[in-house]
């Protein structure tokens, strides 16, 4: 009887372990959560420079080669910073936004649910070093919802306007978090594509 109970206990243990490993592995299929090339940081009608940085802890930043979250699980957080410097000869009202969003399969040979969007399960927390302007919500709730559901021409503002004196610098921090309460395995094998970051301004 003792051996039988022990065998059943071991079976239950390994069964639970298998389920845990399976659930974890399923999220490893999300090999690209967000795909963005920093060469697509566009500066429009303004004399500024813009540099993208990444951090593991939100404190120590290094220059980013891209925005990309690989092999992430629900609850994962990634920290980014856009540093804008006024290199012109007049004060500038700086605006910056992420532009153009689309979902795709990480691996086209594997199954995925094309009715799901990572915009609906990704939290974005936005602050800056100059003003009290801040936003924190799901990405899909931080911009108008197009009737067609197509976000490829939508803008998500990182700041709607910061007055930047000559030679001054502003850091715009934005933190992506894959919401652990909303993102289930039905979101596996999806990636979010961001077309560009656009910095524009009106001289003031």
Concise synopsis of the structure shown:
Helix content is 13%, strand content 44%. The chain is mainly β and 204 residues long.
List strands and helices in order, with pairings:
Blueprint: H1 2-28, E1 34-36, E2 41-44, E3 48-55, E4 61-63, E5 67-68, E6 77-86, E7 92-105, E8 122-128, E9 135-138, E10 155-164, E11 169-178, E12 190-203
Parallel strand pairs: 1-12, 2-12
Antiparallel strand pairs: 1-5, 3-4, 3-6, 6-11, 7-10, 7-12, 8-9, 8-11
Could you characterize the architecture of this molecule?
The protein has one helix at 2-28; strands at residues 34-36, 41-44, 48-55, 61-63, 67-68, 77-86, 92-105, 122-128, 135-138, 155-164, 169-178, 190-203. The N and C termini lie far apart (84 Å). The longest helix has 27 residues, at 2-28. It is mostly beta strands and 204 residues long. It has one domain (2-203). The strands form 2 sheets. Strands 1, 2, 5, 7, 10 and 12 form a 6-stranded mixed beta sheet that branches. The protein has a 6-stranded antiparallel beta sheet with strand order 4-3-6-11-8-9, with no helix packed on it.
Total separate domains: 1
Residue share in helix: 10-25%
State which percent range the strand residues make up: 35-45%
Described by the principal axes of the CA atoms, the overall outline is globular
- Summarize the biggest pleated sheet: 6 strands, mixed
What are the secondary-structure elements, in order, as H or E?
HEEEEEEEEEEEE
Any descriptors?
204 residues, mainly beta, 6-stranded antiparallel β-sheet, disordered N terminus
């Amino acid at each position: 009887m003792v051996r039988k109970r022990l065998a059943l206990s071991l079976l239950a243990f390994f069964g639970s372990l298998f389920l845990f490993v399976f659930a974890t592995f399923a999220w490893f299929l999300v090999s690209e959560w967000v795909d963005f090339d920093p060469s697509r940081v566009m500066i429009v009608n303004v004399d500024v420079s813009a540099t993208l940085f990444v951090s593991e802890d939100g404190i120590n930043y290094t220059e980013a080669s891209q925005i990309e979250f690989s092999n992430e699980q629900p609850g994962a957080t990634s920290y980014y910073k856009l540093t804008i410097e006024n290199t012109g000869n007049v004060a500038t009202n700086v605006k910056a936004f992420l532009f153009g969003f689309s979902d795709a399969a990480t691996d086209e040979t594997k199954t995925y649910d094309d009715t799901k969007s990572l915009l609906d399960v990704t939290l974005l927390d936005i602050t800056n070093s100059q003003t009290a302007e801040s936003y924190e919500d799901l990405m899909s709730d931080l911009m108008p919802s197009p009737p067609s559901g197509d976000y490829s021409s939508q803008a998500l503002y990182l700041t709607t306007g910061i007055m930047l004196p000559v030679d001054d610098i502003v850091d715009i921090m934005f933190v992506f978090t894959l919401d652990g309460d909303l993102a289930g395995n039905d979101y596996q094998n999806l990636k979010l594509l961001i077309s560009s970051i656009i910095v524009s301004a009106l001289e003031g």
